[in-house]
Amino acid sequence: MPKLITLLNGPNLNLLGQRQPEVYGRETLADVVTSCTALAGELGLQIKALQSNHEGQLVDWIQAARADSAGIIINPGAYSHTSVAILDALNAFDGKVLEVHISNIHKREAFRHHSYVSSRAEGVIAGFGTEGYLLALRRMKTLVAA
Ligand code: CA2
Question: How many domains does the chain have?
Fold first, then answer.
């Protein structure tokens, strides 16, 4: 059975490709999920891709991942900078965690420079565009094989 990786995207990431292409690129979230699913197949992994604009829903999905996932790749969106609840949920997850940001949050406003999730993540990718999800998936393969 291929190991399952939960791919979580937070608020407003459903709008990818529809606005602010200069910041977030032209790929849609559906494009990202398609390319991640294809790469996961090559790597012998399985992806469960979920997006929500709601903090509690993301917490519920992180809790659900305790039962079925070896790893979580998460772009928490703006909740990165605000959510102790998402951090607490990730701290209750025993698998590997990687954090992805499409933009380079350190090159942006000061309020985006801190992420609560980073203290739990094995690694953080920021500023690599949507390619960051694929890079995270490759790294996740190494982490869950170890
Ligand atoms: O760079 C990232 O991936 C972020 O997590 C994206 C969040 C932002 O709040 C974080 O600081 C950095 C915002 C996601 C909004 O996505 C949109 C995409 C297209 C159009 C409008 C919003």
Answer: 1
Between CA 135 and CA 107 the distance in angstroms is: 20
Average pLDDT over residues 69-81: 98
Q: What is the mean pLDDT of the chain?
A: 97
Tell which one of 55, 58, 73, 105 to mutate to probe ligand 1, the residue whose CB is within 8 A of the most ligand atoms: 105
DSSP result, the chain: -PEEEEEEE-TTGGGTTTS-HHHH-S--HHHHHHHHHHHHHHHTEEEEEEE-S-HHHHHHHHHHHHHH-SEEEEE-GGGGGT-HHHHHHHHT--SEEEEEESS-GGGS-GGGS--GGGGT-SEEEESSTTHHHHHHHHHHHHHHH-
Q: Can you give the pTM of this predicted structure?
A: 0.98
The closest residue, in CA terms, to atom 5 on ligand 1 is: 77
Q: Is residue 146 scored above 90 in pLDDT?
A: no
pLDDT for the residue 66: 98
- Give me the pLDDT at residue 104, please: 98
Residue 134, domain extent:
3-145
